[in-house]
Specification:
The chain has 61 residues and is mainly alpha-helical. The chain has one domain. Helices cover 33% and strands 0% of the residues. The radius of gyration is 17 Å and the shape is elongated. It holds the Pfam family DDE_3.
Amino acid sequence: MVDQAAWHTTHHLEIPVNITLLNLPPVSPELNPVERIWEKLREDSLANRCFKNFNDAVNDE
């Protein structure tokens, strides 16, 4: 599955015969799994915060 970014729709892209690209609609955040992560981060206390390292972010209460 690919979005409709220029590098996914260019005719210069060589796609192997055993791969089929499925284009997402132009506006479809609900179909993009990473959008769910951003939504959760915005809702949580992790939004707009800085942590010293990964463990501080994971262990944050």
